[in-house]
Request: fold
Amino acid sequence: KLYKKLNFSLINLNPSKRGLLNFYSINRQIKNNDLILSYYLAGLIEGDGYISIDNKNKVILGITFNIKDLYLAERFLNYFGQGFIVKRKTNSIELRFTSVKVIKKIINLVNGKFRTPKIDQLYKLIDWMNKNHSMNIPKLFKDNSPLFNNSWLAGFIDADGHFYIRYSLKQLQCKFSLEQRMIYPKTQESFKPILDQICLFLNVNLIIRKRLKYKNSYYIIKIENQNSTQILIDYLNNNSLFSSKYLDFLEWKKAFNQIKNKTHLTDQGRNIVYSAKNNMNNKRTYFNWDHLKFF
Reply:
């Protein structure tokens, strides 16, 4: 149903012919990088992905990206070998996989690494694969390991997180927010348990935000204090973001270090913070993808 509702035009991508993707060889992949990717991909799918099985027994596994992250979507396309990218009317693109071979590979990567109610979609996909393609894939339980142990949260942040800087005469502060709906509609299961775990890790409180326009409520995680900001920085220094939010994170971290060291009180420090703010999010015009060298 979701597939039919989308209005899109096909982006003509042939990963074997695109020069952008030839610099790094898939042969350089090592097991450790696959482990990083598997946890990250689970978090990304749980944040901005979906799995659809239509009434014609066709499967789509899709992940939504901001249009500025087209390069990252291409890297995933190159890594898995089959799939396609579509451009939506909004400022976004969607990476879609329909190949049974690729979907099986994705399942093998993320199985046992999901943490949210969206595991329901994964279980239905596994049931479909086992029934229609004579497979025997086990349905592994949710991952309850410490969040700081792997890159799941990095993937979830790339999907739903936001770094920003409040810069005014009265306020100079680095902030972070992560928003998620309260209830997973297909099972009516709450997202609160996993969001509580994230809050516990970051030492912040979970907030409820009501959106009257859409007649629903969302959970939101906000980071505004320096202790929690440092926890997040330490985590992301060890578990990198993949999307262009990584570049925003670097600017955000640069500004935070000025504030933490009180050098923002100097003209030079304030200029550094101001420059960082003007190189983030929608104001960013330059993109460097060196952080994806391993992928």
About this structure: The CA atoms of residues 250 and 276 lie 9 Å apart. Residues 31-48 form the longest helix (18 residues). Residues 1-30 have pLDDT under 50 and may be disordered. The domain at 160-292 is CATH 3.10.28.10 (Endonuclease I-creI).
